[in-house]
Design brief:
single chain; mainly alpha; 7 helices
Length: 172
């Protein structure tokens, strides 16, 4: 009676569900699956009908096609939402990269100006020191490392975008 074990798994239901379907107790079903007890005739007949139906190719294909079609639609919608979010994130990362690069260029120009004015005996040394400190702080805030991190994020998002497009094509 070893073949009986796993019928619940084959049908994809729990022991409780199987017992309720067959109008028996859970313990009766467990004992039947372990080979220690037989089922009442009405339960056995129902189980036979269920197993026969599930093994019928036409029943499988009709039910499976309905579920597969629904799952495909849900998957397609999910991928499209992910694509939209990905495109938004790519635009955001590109914008942040440009802003950081502009700030960095501005700070470098400011440092060049401070250097030029310092070398030409500019009268207001306190102002130059403040300008230099601000430029250095801005350079630290828009460092090459931070720019690189944003570029890596952009590249990663681009790869994700390509994978999502591929997944969307495979759905068709």
């Amino acid at each position: 009676m070893k073949k009986k074990s796993g019928i619940s798994k084959i049908l994809g239901v729990t022991h409780n569900d199987m017992a309720m379907l067959l109008n028996i107790s859970r313990s009766q079903w467990s004992m039947y699956e372990s080979g220690k007890r037989d089922l009442p005739l009405s339960s056995k007949l129902l189980l036979t009908e269920i197993l026969t139906y599930v093994k019928t190719p036409s029943a499988k294909s009709q039910n499976q096609m309905l579920h597969i079609t629904k799952q495909d639609s849900l998957m397609k919608a999910s991928i499209q939402r992910q694509l939209q979010e990905n495109e938004f994130q790519q635009l955001l990362a590109a914008r942040q990269t440009v802003i950081l690069e502009q700030k960095q260029e501005k700070s470098v120009r400011k440092l060049l100006l401070v250097s030029y004015l310092s070398n030409n005996d500019h009268k207001n040394n306190d102002l130059l020191k403040v300008m230099e400190a601000k430029a250095i702080k801005q350079l630290e805030n828009s460092s090459q490392l931070l720019i690189l991190q944003h570029k890596i994020k952009q590249a990663t998002l681009q790869l994700e975008h390509e994978m999502l497009l591929k997944a969307l094509k495979e759905e068709h």
